[in-house]
Amino acid sequence: MKAVFVAQGKQIIAEAGDLLTIDRLPETEGSIQFSEVLAVIDGEKVTVGTPHVENASVQATVVKQTRGKKIRVLKYKNKINYHVVKGHRQDQTVVKIDKINV
Questions:
Q1: How far apart, in whole angstroms, are the C-alpha atoms of residue 97 and residue 7?
Q2: What is the rounded distance in angstroms from the CA atom of residue 87 to the CA atom of residue 102?
Q3: Which tens digits make up the pLDDT trace of 1-52?
Q4: In terms of Cα–Cα distance, which of 100, 75, 92 is closest to 5?
Q5: How far is Cα of residue 76 from the mean position of the Cα atoms in its chain?
Q6: How far apart are CA 93 and CA 95, in angstroms?
Q7: C-alpha dihedral, 11 to 69 to 59 to 48, nearest 10°
Q8: Which residues, including other chains, have CB under 8 Å from residue 29's CB and lie 6 or more apart?
Q9: What pLDDT, on a 0 to 100 scale, did the predictor assign at position 29?
């Protein structure tokens, strides 16, 4: 069974047992629940919500808080000797999908 749900403003498709890396959540450990389920796919049967599927949720466990890969940002202006290199690492949370409730 797969579910499409909303986490941190992004739509994610997952099934039970998946490890997902999403944007930083305020929870540091323990169980969390995503209640904004947009669709549930169970084999041949597809349930699509308007806008959400009623009485459906995705239960997950926070595995760890981490940071993403470094992205280098370069600003450069020609002929005036201006260049700035900055780096950015996005804060992320790794969650394990435990169960999809319908």
A1: 12
A2: 42
A3: 999 999 989 999 999 999 999 999 998 889 999 999 999 999 899 999 888 9
A4: 100
A5: 33
A6: 6
A7: 10
A8: 62
A9: 87
